[in-house]
Amino acid sequence: MLTCTPLFSGSTGNSTHLSCDGEEFLIDVGVSCKAVCSALNALGSSIENIRGIFITHEHTDHIKGLEIISKKYNIPVYMNTSSAKYIYCTNGFDNLRRNLNILDPTQSLTTDNARFDVYKTPHDSWGSVCYRVTCGEERLGYATDIGYVTKGIASALLGCETVVIESNHDIEMLKNGPYPIYLQERILSKNGHLSNDDCARFLPYLAQSGARKIYLAHLSKENNHPNIALENAKRALGDYPETEIFVCKEKEFDF
Description:
alpha/beta, Metallo-beta-lactamase, Chain A, seven-stranded mixed sheet, 30% helix, 25% strand
């Protein structure tokens, strides 16, 4: 059985828990080690249960807790080459080195119960990837921090029963919000973040290919609202009532 629980989601930090027939993993650890451990405890798990940490890219809101977790716990970390090089050049992360494993786009990793396939994504980072996770006959697609849906991202997500996909901003809120023009342009670019509208346009294809549970992730606190993202998604999926839509909270558990 494959289960997915977003623990943290948004510009303040991102981390998602996966369980595949008893094997537990994290995608990203963009909050403190203490926060990750507390969230796992609230979920009924523990950091000691985690078999691997899969990193999407090197931005702080995806790796904040990585060095301390690597210092305290002997957990394998999987990351693309470009992100790893950037981290070493700018942050050092000496404790990470002993646990780091390179996992680049087009590569895959098989554990006892799961398979992780890696796909390149367009984002303004040194390296950025999304994942397709297979557990028996179940599949999960995970793609956030994406400027647009590429053919590779579509390959990762289509055919998955569960999908975590970015729905970062409402375009009008962004254009009329507090962000300076240069930052607006960065977010709206092909290497920025996926808008509610672009996310919604892709959702029917996910539903047609078998998605039954879709999580809207990485919502901007300043330039989006959960109700806006949810209503956009529901309108797009009006012909697919069997597909459930959830909005990831900034912090899933109170602790």
